[in-house]
Amino acid sequence: EAQVTQNPRYLITVTGKKLTVTCSQNMNHEYMSWYRQDPGLGLRQIYYSMNVEVTDKGDVPEGYKVSRKEKRNFPLILESPSPNQTSLYFCASRRERGEQYFGPGTRLTVT
Amino acid sequence: GQNIDQPTEMTATEGAIVQINCTYQTSGFNGLFWYQQHAGEAPTFLSYNVLDGLEEKGRFSSFLSRSKGYSYLLLKELQMKDSASYLCAPRFLGGKLIFGQGTELSVKP
Q: Which H or E element spans position B91?
């Protein structure tokens, strides 16, 4: 089944404790992105990648890091999480001109 | 930056027709997606328009006017399960996809 998976689905953590949210797709898509979604602000792009070893900042990259060492994986790293990073996070993938497929979401709470 | 406008909320009655509008800036435009998102879930693909005109897909249709920077999503024979947020997402040259804030549709019996 074609899909985007992300883990964990739910995470409660404390300020400053490094965490990684994994994302994997099995559709051989070139493009992968991370979004955060907050009430009243919609989906905002954090980082995106156009292919292996090619990443670029989206609209709200501060406080986040990404890497794309393999085509299928695109982890999101929060080196020192803060409460303002409490949000619902989505990973997504697509071909250059195709529709975007979203993962199921990760609900992160930073206390 | 890009400014994508769609209404924040709409309400309609079961069985009716509703039209959700979206406007965007035309510079660098290269196609437009519509997504449906139920609360707490991932967005799911509804439609894609790159040429002017109407694309019909069952109860859902989407229209595009490239010159006017305008699109709409038309939902017919509304069902309660259509209560969701509808996201307009134009794509621009270079592949960048930008999402509007979404229109929260409530379908009443």
A: strand B84-92
